[in-house]
Amino acid sequence: MKLTGRNVVITGASRGLGRALAFELGRRGARLVLVARPSAELDRTVAELCAAGVEAWALGADIGDKHAIVPLAAQAAALAGPVDILVNNASTLGPTPLRPLLDTECEDLERVLDVNVVGPFRLTKALAGAMALRGEGVVVNISSDAAVAAYAGWGSYGASKAALDHLTRIWAEELCEHGVGFLSIDPGEMDTAMHAAALPEADPQSLAPPAQVARHIAAWLEDGAPSGSRLITPSAPLAQEVTS
Amino acid sequence: VSPARAPRAERDRARLLILDPRSGDLHDGELLDLPGLLGPGDVLVVNDAATLPASLGAELVATSPGQRAASQDEATIELRLAGIDPEDEEGERWRAVVFGRGDWRTRTEERAAPPPITVGDVLAIAAAALRATIVAVSAESPRLVTLAFDRRGAELWSALYRAGRPVQYSHLEEALELWSVQTSYASRPWAVEAPSAGLGLSWRLLGALRARGVVVATLTHGAGLSATGDPELDAALPLPERYDIPAATVAAIDHARANGRRVIAVGTTVVRALEASARAHGVLRAGTGVAELKLSARHRLVAVDGLLTGIHDPSESHFALLGAFAPRALLLAAWHHAARAGYLGHEFGDVMLVAAPPAEQPADHHHHPHQGTALQSRNKPPLGPSSRSVASHTAVSAVCSNASLAWLRDGSTEGHTALTLIPSPASSRPSARVSARMPDAPRSTESPRGSPSPSSDSPRAFDTRTMRP
Predict the structure, then answer these.
(1) Which of A91, A201, B188, B320 would staple A116 via disulfide (CB 3.0–4.6 Å)?
(2) Given A134, A145, A224, which is nearest B416 (Cβ)?
């Protein structure tokens, strides 16, 4: 898929992988609606993209707030036009330091599920109907290896990502015949603020830069992948990056 | 016909009144019967406009000392956006209708008149979070104004969505939420009231239509206000409204008409967009435009054959529009029948299909309900998808789960070329399992998903190659 001229919504776009994806997809010609909780970081990211010649807009919203979703989907389409690609990247770890399930408040689990599962479901529901009507579109859900491996302390986050993965597969089954593709992507361990909050002792040198992960994701979007796939980002850079 | 008093719990559980405008035959059905009433190659065109929160509370701000002796009561108004000014290329100016004090519990017709408004007046919206200046007052009505907001782009859209609520209706039991006025395929927010004929179209219904071979196509039309409280302005409705017709929709309609298939519009906004485009260009053409056309019995339809619409009262302006599809006497007979039979009207009410049966169709394409006698009511249980449509559904899905997505390899930056499904060497799954997982598989079975097998997947099994059984 050529990304040129495609309208893309990225949540959690003010920093980390979301921000890196915005720059990578923008570089490839996509038009971007960046979503995050209102912040100077979000505005700065959009300003930098616009300065680089990318068409980009900022929308401040909390994905965990059910009243925010219908307005968000409509505003994105109003600004950029019908949405071609949705990247559900925003997510929360819940309270940090991470804690065992027996010490996890029920309300904290609910909040994690709201942001990481129900929010992406609501936003997909608000955008994928129009994609299905036009017979094309892609939804990318950003997952984690915590969705498949059981790590002590990662209960809320891991359960939410496992649920998101399964939603990806079922969305793919239901909307494949209407031309809408779904991918679940495990980006691996990245040098981000979220990773530092979860594992402050990790050596940043051992973590992948978000920009490198973003290049893999952009390549999957351009080259195509089976709908319903769960893709794991290689820890190495793309082959062409190594050679170039 | 009584108004529906609340959004339906299940959007597609509406009754369907079928009127054949040639024979005058009337039949009672369910909206879920629609796939059986249309045939392969017929085109159903929907309006994918999302519905704005177009109602804004505002205060009229005195712009100079002593300019106005308005009391607080008089200064409190409701603005209902009527759409972006179609003459404004930048999309920064909006048309709006101004109402006096009051809320949704008062019928629009009985709302207090707004204070006099003149060019240059400033409106403070949502406690001055957003301001607008009146740049024109219509000659048609002092209530119809053009205004310029004090911000633009993402800031304006965010402010409108924070400040606005959907236009409300006094016949409803409760105030409407924004999500209650969206279709299941809403895209750009161009409509100020819901394109309500499409509110009943669920994805199980759209999926069954496509499985039957009906082409479901789309356009965007800025559906306007249904009432303004000013009889003279009401008589001038609908105002000029923006539309955008995709190339794929034009191609689908041209193909259907060349092959003797029918084009069914979902709602009069779709009729207006298609007929306006055909009239403006001589032929239906893709792209944007402004529909000024007013439909009536005098209009000869050139792009559309039939209409799915709400149940409209002869006193509503919409009723006159239906005259383009059927003689007034038949429409009146249909309305009397609907009233007697307890059909519901207005935004969340039942629907009516005004369409002649296709000229020639295989017998099974029209099994129901055109074989009945006119006006014979049958209390038929709502149809689920037929076993036939589930079967073809499954076939498509099986192909689908065996395909790679490789969308838009042609590199086009405009339009929306359908993605290509390229078979991949990945193994296919047994179709029986696919069918067991279909969301609209028969619900009588004890476990619609079959028995889940204990997972032997190790975390590593979740890669692209082994994810599918």
Answers:
(1) A91
(2) A134
